[in-house]
Amino acid sequence: MHIITEDVFLKNGLQTFIKQKKITLDNNDVILDFDNNFIIITTLTTLNRIIQNDNAFECYLLHSFLKIKKDTRLTDISRTLKYKSWRNKQGQECRIALTRKERMLLSHIISAGKKKSMLTHSGLDIKTVSTHKYNMLRKVNQPSIAALTQVHNRWENFRNQPAN
């Protein structure tokens, strides 16, 4: 099993729970630090399939991972892992649900662009861009551009880690 996080306390805590057999996962399973609120539990196979996708970050955002809040009690995590059929969902293909304009806005945001410069390139009104931004954030289940940027940074750190 793999734990991918930059949070040393989270990693040590999860490793302790695994050693004490309070959390049981397979060798192919991955616990990935998603953002400040959630961890993701998935498989290496699923992550490799997502990484090979042309729209890897979008697919990562829109995939139906098993997300668990970081403040969830250990007994609830164990129960969720034991009874939820999250492994069945891992084989599903990622379905990109963003429109062309939302994808353009997402790529512009993650490349650290500003909204005004996007307006000059696309000819869109500021209200239209705001609507696309709202819809995109809702679809990727992120509360703000800052949270989306944080998730993207963690994604890039994960992708750039050397393979074990």
Summarize the helix and strand pattern as letters. EHEEHHEHHHHHH
Strand content: 5-15%
Main pleated sheet: 4 strands, mixed
Poorly predicted residue ranges: none
Mean pLDDT across the residues is: 80
Give the neighbour order of strands across the main sheet. Answer: 1-2-3-4
In whole angstroms, the N-to-C terminal distance is: 11 Å
Rg, rounded, reads: 17 Å
Number of strands: 4
Assembly type: single chain
- Helix share, percent: 40-55%
Structural class: alpha+beta
Identify the overall geometry: elongated
Helical stretch count? Answer: 9
Topology:
Elements: E1 2-4, H1 8-19, E2 29-33, E3 38-43, H2 44-51, H3 56-62, E4 66-69, H4 74-83, H5 86-90, H6 100-110, H7 115-122, H8 126-139, H9 145-159
Helix pairs in contact: 6-8
Structure report:
The protein has 164 residues and is α+β, with helices and mostly antiparallel strands. It is built from nine helices and four strands. It has a four-stranded mixed β-sheet. A hairpin with a 4-residue loop joins strand 2 and strand 3 (38-43). The model has no long low-confidence stretch (mean pLDDT 80).
Keyword list:
164 residues; four-stranded mixed β-sheet
Q: Could you give a quick summary of the protein structure above?
A:
This protein has helices spanning about 10-20, 45-50, 55-60, 75-85, 85-90, 100-110, 115-120, 125-140, 145-160; strands at about 1-5, 30-35, 40-45, 65-70. The protein has about 160 residues and is of the alpha+beta class.
